[in-house]
């Protein structure tokens, strides 16, 4: 009985292929995700703790955290509002060009970020189309944190739209109709009936957009101007260290970004799990 | 509150969902809108609710609740209660919050105090026998319970009319029966005007004071269940309200012939189609001078007050369904494959151009 040799005694799994598919998954994760991370931590061990601490608390680096986090937060908030609106428009209304708009939503994923960055930079530079209009009004976008936030918003908008959209599609129109038939005004119905359904996906989408913005590089460096203490983002600082062949320093800074991202993703997951449980009626 | 509809029509794109129609529902009535899917019954209900608007035509349409013209009134101000087929409960809210929703979204000036809301919600929950589940969430309730919550939620705002869209359609047969009776009692007790949509003739006939039978966007007949069943106005109504057997043949000299079968009928010569209810067929072991309809028993279902028997013959296009009393069933010693003769107690016949009697679309 050849077959038996592959089966552990007492194994009664009905779905076939667990061993093989799980094995390949683990191998894939190890090669693609875990190995580079291990490499990163390997680099870190070349530093003593005080060296590490000195690198990650360097004034210029700390300034870059502020710029990155601030711009990413602004970009995420903008995306939360407009991403929700876009998803709403795409799901709830019929209009000509709807499919085109829907396809356009994925453009930031498809476009090389450097292309987006160069385009944005030329557009908002003092002599660009938008820059020419905005600068006389005293509103400078290129080479300021506004430009950084803009580039971040551009690259991360699909996260919000694509996480909210399916939930909105699953939300039956009867729910709105029920709220309205009970006398609720549009605003009240949206706030008390529709938003509670969308919260988890909106928070997840916004969180993902935020985390994505933290790591964005290509789209930003062209429009940021990279002025020390002003418009340097953290990934640019990593890039600078790499150019100086300071791999340990680059890893140290990268570890901070990685840590923040991981904590955020974890928080979102925990929060969402709790929310979903509530939707299914507490713990019972 | 009575409901009066005048010249209501509806198109969805190029398809006509409703032909211009008039309908009056009296105060305190429980009216069923009955029809196959696509007959426009749900559209009509949604127009009454204000969830759809009727076509704007040159002849003005109007909807009245009592003396109040609500044609242009938004659904939220029409003072209706709407119950959806799939309950449409707010699943992030407890049962209590669902029922309280309509009261809690009232403008501050007219909103009852929270103690008053609490009192009213619990009174409603008591009425639907769910007060012990007030803290539960919809996902923790059975379908029947959810529909009761949905009904309590609709009644909480004390609507002028209660509208129910296939309220029992998603429930299993036994719960459906129970809820049906319960709704009838509730209606008699509270005496509101209600309209419900169903595609189940049994449900419509059992529950309604009057039934509106619809097909293809038209009202075919409006009558009490009794009249509707006994005196259907046309063939569609007759066929929709129960099982029907067909007998098609050529009449010559007062005898309808169909293959090797014949039966005496008082009809002028020509091609005729007779319609028979299952209980209008009598089975016997011998033919009679008036009737020679040889049939073979192909299936027997002895469930219920009567035995349902399927009959086939080579002169029949589709098998017949006949109901036989248990006593007759035993007397005839019915079994599958047994050859018998059918006799007609009664039969029905509708002019093939009966459609022309219906109100034409032009107005």
UniProtKB/TrEMBL annotation, chain A:
Q: Where are the transmembrane segments?
A: 20-45, 65-91, 103-125, 137-161, 197-227, 247-268
What's the protein's topology in the membrane? Answer: Multi-pass membrane protein
Give the signal peptide, or none: none
Q: Alphabetically list the UniProt keywords.
A: Membrane, Sulfate transport, Transmembrane, Transmembrane helix, Transport
Q: Which domain of life is it from?
A: Bacteria
Which subcellular locations apply to this protein?
Cell membrane
Outline the extent of the ABC transmembrane type-1 domain: 65-268
The record's principal subcellular location, in a coarse class, is membrane
What role is this protein assigned? Part of the ABC transporter complex (TC 3.A.1.6.1) involved in sulfate/thiosulfate import. Part of the ABC transporter complex CysAWTP (TC 3.A.1.6.1) involved in sulfate/thiosulfate import. Probably responsible for the translocation of the substrate across the membrane.
UniProt record similarity statement: Belongs to the binding-protein-dependent transport system permease family. CysTW subfamily.
Quaternary structure, per UniProt, is: The complex is composed of two ATP-binding proteins (CysA), two transmembrane proteins (CysT and CysW) and a solute-binding protein (CysP).
Q: What is this protein called?
A: Sulfate transport system permease protein CysT
- Source organism (scientific name): Halomonas dongshanensis
* Gene name as annotated: cysT
TrEMBL record, chain B:
Matching Gene3D superfamilies: 2.40.50.100, P-loop containing nucleotide triphosphate hydrolases (3.40.50.300)
Read off the Pfam families from this record.
ABC_tran, TOBE_3
Domain called ABC transporter: residue spans: 3-241
Q: Source organism's superkingdom? A: Bacteria
Annotated keywords: ATP-binding, Cell membrane, Membrane, Nucleotide-binding, Sulfate transport, Translocase, Transport
Which protein are we looking at? TOBE-like domain-containing protein
- UniProt organism field: Halomonas dongshanensis
